[in-house]
């Protein structure tokens, strides 16, 4: 485990009052390594492996396909017949091979076997002429020699996955195609990493939980729901610690409890200028936490570091800590661009860079140089095939409906100024997390 000194040194290289997004991402990346000693692995059945992280390479126990078979409906024959034939090749049909019902005899020279896709290639046959190329009269077929080459339309044994070779690598997040692939290997169970445990809570005296009555000046806590949803989508185990009041004793209790019960602690609210002093003092006694003003909008204030459950920093159990801003859109943007990658890395997953696509801005956008801005956008494909993106309207960091309507973030790089209609911009599709 890296020491507190190393943590401070790592963070001190940057100006915490104007930390570029890339620098914040880099620091977080360095701190979010999966622990080498972390042997927390479990065996799960295929259905339960969906969206989990493979703990070890899966070596193929068989060849897939397990036998040479036909890629087409047609006629199988020995390719040597092509060399013997003239302009046309004439063969007589000796029998039929269906998927699961092989033709076991060896056809003679001048013979072929009617074959269906996936059927075992009959002995001595290495080529399949598709039925579309054939004219059949009774038990003989004829096709143009020039249309065929020996070896065509045959799937070779082991072509998809070869026995003894890695089929899926450790760190892979198991998706639909992988489940199918594992099944095709006859594998019913795999070793996956235990889920990362993430505790989260909201801070603010003004917050009420769904079900409570709103009093003047209070509002419902939505961050716990967006966080819950994004965390679930990432496949981590969630611990919802509710709403924490804006006082030192409540916050300290919540942080200690969270650190004891989770690998990562995420809070929202209480890190902006007014609150930061109050939380800063507490964080300093509980761990190594840096307060950053990230040069991004939304999401400027953010606290990041490590907390300890013991009496002093460096004692007891450690957990990585993200103190996100309170504004609902800022929570989602910082989660997407700062937290997401850390959680995936700590889960043991190989890097999953966000998909960045270029699109044409439909209208002008105000943008201040010196900070990265994440606007909410709706991207659609034009008739000419190009992607065009419009913003969702009011872009205030409290306007959650702007996230709901959007299907992507429009990422306006730090150095950039105002955008004109027709300019190229980068977009990041929401990718199932939001
Ligand atoms: P803060 O960062 O604590 O100053 O909060 C910034 C703004 O976000 C304030 O207007 C808060 O009321 C609002 N806010 C903070 N936490 C939440 C939450 N959990 N749900 C909805 N709004 C919140
Ligand atoms: Mg607050």
TrEMBL record:
Enzyme kind, highest EC tier: transferase
GO biological process, one term: Mo-molybdopterin cofactor biosynthetic process
Keyword Membrane among UniProt keywords: no
Superkingdom of source: Bacteria
Pathways involved: Cofactor biosynthesis; molybdopterin biosynthesis
Sections of the chain in a coiled coil: none
Every MoaB/Mog domain range: 199-345
Keyword line: Magnesium, Metal-binding, Molybdenum, Molybdenum cofactor biosynthesis, Transferase
Catalytic activity, EC: 2.10.1.1
Record-linked Gene3D superfamilies: MoaB/Mog-like domain, MoeA, C-terminal, domain IV, Molybdopterin biosynthesis moea protein, domain 2, Molybdopterin biosynthesis moea protein, domain 3
Catalysed reaction, written as an equation: adenylyl-molybdopterin + molybdate = Mo-molybdopterin + AMP + H(+)
Family annotation (SUPFAM superfamilies): MoeA C-terminal domain-like, MoeA N-terminal region -like, Molybdenum cofactor biosynthesis proteins
Needed co-factor(s): Mg(2+)
GO cellular component: a single term: cytosol
GO molecular function: metal ion binding; molybdopterin molybdotransferase activity
Family to which this protein belongs: Belongs to the MoeA family.
Function of the protein: Catalyzes the insertion of molybdate into adenylated molybdopterin with the concomitant release of AMP.
Protein name: Molybdopterin molybdenumtransferase
Lineage, top ranks: Bacteria, Pseudomonadati, Pseudomonadota, Betaproteobacteria, Burkholderiales
């Amino acid at each position: 485990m890296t020491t507190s000194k190393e943590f401070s040194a790592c963070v001190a290289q940057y100006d915490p009052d104007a930390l570029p997004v890339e620098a914040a991402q880099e620091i977080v990346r360095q701190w979010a390594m999966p622990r080498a000693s972390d042997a927390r692995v479990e065996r799960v059945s295929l259905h339960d492996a969906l969206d989990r992280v493979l703990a070890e390479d899966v070596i193929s126990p068989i060849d897939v396909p397990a036998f040479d078979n036909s890629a087409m409906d047609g006629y199988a024959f020995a390719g040597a017949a092509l060399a013997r034939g003239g302009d046309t090749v004439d063969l007589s049909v000796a029998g039929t091979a269906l998927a699961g019902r092989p033709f076991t005899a060896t056809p003679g020279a001048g013979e072929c076997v009617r074959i269906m896709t996936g059927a075992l290639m009959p002995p001595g046959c290495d080529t399949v002429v598709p039925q579309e190329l054939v004219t059949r009269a009774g038990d003989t077929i004829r096709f143009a020699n020039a249309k065929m080459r020996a070896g065509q339309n045959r799937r070779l044994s082991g072509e998809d996955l070869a026995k003894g070779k890695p089929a899926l690598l450790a760190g892979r997040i198991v998706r639909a195609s992988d489940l199918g692939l594992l099944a095709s290997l006859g594998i019913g169970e795999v070793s996956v990493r235990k889920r990362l445990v993430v505790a989260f809570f909201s801070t603010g005296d003004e917050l009420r939980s769904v079900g409570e009555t709103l009093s003047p000046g209070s509002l419902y806590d939505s961050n716990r729901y967006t966080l819950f949803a994004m965390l679930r989508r990432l496949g981590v185990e969630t611990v919802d610690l509710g709403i924490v009041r804006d006082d030192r004793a409540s916050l300290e209790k919540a942080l200690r409890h969270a650190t004891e019960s989770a690998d990562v602690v995420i809070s929202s609210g209480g890190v902006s200028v007014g609150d930061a002093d109050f939380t800063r003092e507490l964080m300093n006694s509980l761990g190594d936490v840096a307060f950053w003003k990230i040069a991004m909008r939304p999401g400027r204030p953010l606290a990041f570091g490590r907390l300890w459950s013991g009496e002093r920093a460096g004692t007891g159990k450690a957990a990585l800590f993200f103190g996100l801003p309170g504004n609902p859109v800022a929570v989602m943007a910082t989660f997407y661009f700062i937290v997401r990658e850390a959680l995936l890395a700590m889960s043991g997953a190989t890097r999953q860079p966000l998909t960045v696509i270029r699109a044409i801005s439909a209208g002008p956008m105000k943008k201040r140089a010196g900070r990265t801005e994440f606007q909410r956008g709706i991207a659609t494909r034009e008739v000419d095939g190009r992607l065009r993106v419009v913003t969702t309207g009011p872009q205030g960091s409290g306007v959650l409906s702007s996230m709901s309507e959007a299907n992507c973030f429009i990422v306006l790089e730090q150095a950039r100024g105002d955008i004109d209609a027709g300019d190229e911009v980068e977009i990041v599709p929401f990718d199932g997390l939001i």
